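Sample intake sheet
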Amino acid sequence: MQGKELIRDMINTYFMLATMILGVMAILGTQFMPEVRFGYESFTIPLIYAAYGTLPNIVMYARKELSMKQLVVRKIIQFILVEVIVISVALPAEIVVIGKTELIIKLAISILVIYVLTHLIEWFQNYVTAKQMTEELLKFQKKCE
């Protein structure tokens, strides 16, 4: 992935992540802390987490086309970075020390689900774009004949 593609991908990923993080926060919040009520400043939290979750996309930057093996290795590194960054930002140190392993595990699983969903949505968007381009090219070829 090169310069402009990387920036476009990061912006697209950011907005998908912000939406999905908001959903996960609502679900996990009602399970683990239903008594907590937030003020307006809490609306920024999914935006901040999405920004941190988007940073590992930089791992995908390459000057040339990646081989399948390189792509898979970079995706694994990217996923590990997303897990580590988001968990370390999302959970205060005292929660990790107390040992609320159930919360940490559910958060890690939520991050995995969001990661997979984001990639599936991106794949589908790319698939639709490629299909449209192919159809337009076929129409163009028929006009030129």
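Comment: The radius of gyration is 19 Å. The chain has five helices and no strands.
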